[in-house]
Structures are given as C-alpha cells and as structure tokens.
Write a structure and sequence with these properties.
Number of helices: 21
Order of helices and strands: HHHHHHHHHHHHHHHHHHHHH
Shape: elongated
Strand content: under 5%
Largest sheet: none
Structural class: mainly alpha
Number of strands: 0
C-alpha cells in the first residue's frame, strides 16, 4: 500500500495542480504548497507508523519483550504479518525453546521473526539436532547465541562442523557447540588454520591441538602473530610443547582478561602467602590451573591448609594441584581424618600434605581410614562429615 501511494504521488500532484488552475487560484503560495505536501504524505506516514506500532505491540505481547527492548528491536525489523512471525515462534517452541529463551533470541536477533521457517530456519535446527545436540542444549545454545540462525547452513555452519570433525571426535564437536558456539560464526580459515599449522611446525602433537579445539577454541581464534609470541613465552617458562599442561598454560595467558587473572593471582600468592617469583613459576609449571582460580578459592584453600592445618605456605608450590581440588568435598574431609590421627599420635605431625590429599579415594581410604578403624571406630564418620572432630 505504501509503494502504491508513492507511485501515485505525481499523478495526484498533477490532478491537484489542474484543479487549482481551473478554479482560478493560480500558483499556490509556499505555505499552501507545504500544506498540500503534508496532506499528501499523511497517509504514507500513518501507514509507516501503523506498521511500526504493530511490530512493537507484537514484540511485547507475543515475544515477551519490555517496551524499551521492543522499540529497539523494532528499529531493526518490520513485521509484515502476524502469521509469519507466529510460525517462527512455533518452530522455535517445537525444538524445545522456552518462552524466556525465545524472548532472548528475539531480543538479540529480531530479524529471526521474518526468516522463512521452512526453508531457512528448520534445516539449521534439524542439522544441529542431527549432529548430537540435545533439545535442552540446542535451546541453551540458541538463547545464548541466536545469530547462529542467521548464518548460511551450506556456506558457514556445515563447513565449520566438518572442519572441527576432521580434527576431533563428534562428542567434542558437540562440546564446542555447547561452550564455544561462536566458532560457527567465524571464518575458521582466517586465524584457526594458520595457528594450527604454526603449532604443528613448532612440534605440538595432534592430541594437544585437538585438546585446544575441543576445550580452548578461543586460543586458536587468537591473532596469529600474538599466538606465536605466546607459544614462545610459554616455552620459555619451561613447558613441554608435547604435554597437555602446555595447552592449559596457553589458555591461562591468552588474552587480556586471562593475563589479568594470572597477574592478580601471582600477587595474591606473593603478597598474602609469601611466595617468591620462582615459587609462582614453579607452581604454574606443575599445575597451570592454579593460576586461573578465583581469588576466593585461593584464599579459602590456603587459609585452611596453612592456618587450620598448620602446613607451611612455602610447601604448597611443590604440590600446587592441591589448590585445584574441592575444599568441601576433598580437602577438608581428608585433612579432618589426618588431624584426628595426628591428635591420637597415629600419624606423624610432619606427614606430607601430598601423602593425604593427592591419592585416589580408594587409596586414601585404605591408607588413612580402614587401616585405623580398630583404633578409631568413628573415623569413617569423620571422613563423611557426620561427626565433629571434637567428638572423636
């Protein structure tokens, strides 16, 4: 209707002009011409306003957007009919997306409402399901990254999947989709392939490259020159390119935010617990994960080991992986058992921290619980958290 009005505008102008001459009005004054233009454009403006209002109303009532978000989304898309948008919402719902998740999708990518449900959206949804993404995971992925629905299935999504599948297992490709779905938005040949080739030339084995693809894809998406520089830095710290710890070290130092966390944790270990720079680097080489923990996790674990168990802070860099264990599920239960045994003189007070915390559960139970049950019958209850230390 809008187009028709615009096309008919010159004809209307000529009719008006002719009519004014026949009435002897002569040339219209500028003010009258302006009024004439306003009158002629009013139906067009009203139509546009009506369409915009319909879009905003639909986004609020059918998609659950707030008025502010609806106005913003309406600036990016104009709905022509309710039927088409309803079909899109029905399709998303049929693939497991909740109303909240659909609202997130529309808010972030409002043009999804004018996509063809059968020709454009359905094939992509079916593809993601066919490669092993569950309904629950698909809904989560799309609500987090709805722009997947705007990418070409043939030219972007399938080639990205095949590229990953040639390097890692089907299960790990699904893991990438769940955790790093933006990998399917990028041209993987731009950075990923040159980075993989560089790592191969430097001697990194396929297993480690596959580990990067499966769990730390963002490292391979990094700028090529910066990644090569980072690899050399990590090698300079004493990491072996052929071991999985090298991959974790790359992740810990790759990018500004990761580097900031690493620097923060270095200062925590040094300032709060008296570690030297050599202690930090030594701990990082043995267990790179200890440098990407949260400040709260570091402080709580160190406080327990040093202040409650009485172990020296300088001993912990020798076994830094202990810091990565769960405090509630592993460290406290085991240390509680050891503390009881020390109190009763059954275990040397200078017993190694690693001797108690590092072994697998079966080995720990045999070494510290089953062995002493005849002397301390309640020891298993202490380990399971059912009995306070003071009651033993």
């Amino acid at each position: 209707m809008v187009v028709a009005l615009r096309l008919g505008y010159p004809i209307i102008c000529r009719l008006v002009s002719s009519r004014t001459k026949s009435l002897g009005l002569g040339n219209l004054k500028p003010s009258n011409i302006s009024l004439q233009n306003q009158l002629l454009h009013r139906p067009i403006s009203s139509e546009i306003s009506k369409q915009a209002n319909f879009t905003v109303t639909y986004l609020i009532n059918s998609c659950g957007l707030s008025p502010e978000d609806a106005k913003l989304a309406a600036s990016k898309v104009e709905l022509q009919s309710q039927e088409g948008a309803d079909s899109v919402l029905a399709l998303l719902s049929s693939h497991g997306l909740s109303e909240t998740q659909i609202s997130k999708v529309v808010k972030s990518h409002p043009r999804v409402l004018v996509a063809d449900p059968e020709k454009t959206l359905s094939p992509k949804l079916e593809f993601f399901s066919s490669v092993g993404l569950s309904r629950v995971d698909l809904a989560r992925v799309l609500s987090f990254n709805p722009h997947l629905l705007s990418r070409s299935l043939e030219n972007q999504i399938v080639p990205s999947y095949n590229f990953l599948r040639n390097m890692i297992s089907k299960e790990n490709v699904v893991a990438v989709l769940k955790r790093r779905s933006w990998m399917f938005l990028e041209n993987h040949s731009r950075n990923v392939m040159p980075n993989i080739e560089a790592l191969r030339e430097l001697g990194m084995p396929r297993t480690c490259i596959s580990l990067l693809l499966a769990h730390d894809t963002q490292v391979l998406m990094h700028n090529h020159d910066e990644l090569v520089q980072l690899v050399n830095e990590v090698r300079g710290m004493g990491f072996d390119l052929k071991k999985s710890t090298f991959v974790v070290a790359l992740r810990a130092l790759c990018g500004k935010s990761s580097r900031a966390i690493w620097n923060r944790n270095r200062e925590i270990y040094k300032r709060s617990w008296g570690w030297s720079d050599d202690d930090v680097i030594s701990a990082f080489r043995k267990s790179p994960q200890c440098m990407i923990l949260s400040e709260k996790k570091i402080m709580r674990t160190m406080d327990f080991l040093v202040n409650k168990m009485g172990w020296s802070a300088s001993m912990i860099p020798t076994y830094p992986v202990i810091l990565c264990f769960s405090l509630e599920n592993r460290i406290i239960p085991r240390c509680s058992v050891v503390k009881v045994l020390m109190k009763k003189g059954l275990v040397d007070e200078n017993a190694s921290l690693a001797y108690a915390v590092l072994p697998a559960e079966k080995q720990f139970l045999e070494r510290f619980v089953t062995r002493y049950l005849s002397q301390v019958p309640n020891l298993l209850s202490v380990y399971e958290g059912e009995l306070d230390l003071q009651d033993v």
